């Protein structure tokens, strides 16, 4: 009589005598394996549920070269992000960009000079900003590509 490789289940040949004990033993092995698999799936679901409640959205936008309160930049989302980071343009020297959190925000262009700070406004499903001094301080240099990332709380 042969056995399967993984669970050692009985594999009968035509000439083998079939016994009820062998059926019962195989059913017990199958039941144990299915229960173990179900327990593993349940443990993974529990672990996944505790891995956080954050949705991440990322992308880029291209600068227009305009600046000031009459020409703000604006990112629009499918929901209300809790936190948004906008980095200096791709290919430029590493520059800390805009960090914005609902109810609290900071905006930098890599300088401590207050004239480089962007004015941020949260809207419904959006974030707008401008700088009165220059398009580069507004992260809006013409034809420059700026990456961003936004974090959203998932719905429970």
Catalogue the unreliable spans.
Answer: none
Beta-strand residue percentage: 25-35%
User: Taking all residues together, what is the mean pLDDT?
Assistant: 84
Sketch the topology as an H/E string, one letter per element.
EEHEEEEEEEE
Number of helical runs? 1
The 3D shape can be described as rod-shaped
Radius of gyration: 30 Å
Alpha carbon gap, first and last residue: 54 Å
What structural class do helix, strand and pairing data support?
Answer: alpha+beta
Helix content: 10-25%
Whole-number total of structural domains: 2
Number of strands: 10
Strand order of the largest sheet: 3-10-5-6-7
Summarize the main sheet: 5 strands, antiparallel
Write the layout of secondary structure elements.
Elements: E1 2-3, E2 10-11, H1 20-49, E3 54-62, E4 73-76, E5 83-86, E6 98-101, E7 104-107, E8 119-123, E9 126-130, E10 145-153
Antiparallel strand pairs: 1-2, 3-10, 4-9, 5-6, 5-10, 6-7, 8-9
């Amino acid at each position: 009589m042969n056995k399967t490789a993984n669970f050692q289940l009985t594999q009968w040949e035509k000439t083998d005598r079939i016994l009820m004990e062998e059926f019962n033993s195989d059913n017990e092995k199958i039941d144990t394996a299915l229960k173990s698999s179900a327990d593993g799936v349940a443990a993974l679901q529990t672990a996944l549920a505790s891995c956080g409640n954050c949705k991440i959205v990322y992308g880029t936008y291209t600068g227009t070269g305009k600046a000031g309160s009459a020409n703000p930049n604006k990112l629009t989302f499918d929901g209300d992000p809790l936190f948004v980071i906008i980095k200096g343009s791709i290919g430029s020297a590493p520059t800390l960009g805009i960090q914005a959190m609902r109810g609290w925000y900071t905006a930098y262009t890599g300088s401590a000079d207050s004239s480089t700070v962007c004015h941020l406004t949260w809207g419904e499903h959006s974030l707008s900003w401008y700088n009165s001094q220059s398009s580069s301080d507004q992260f809006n240099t013409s034809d420059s590509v700026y990456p961003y990332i936004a974090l959203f709380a998932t719905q429970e």
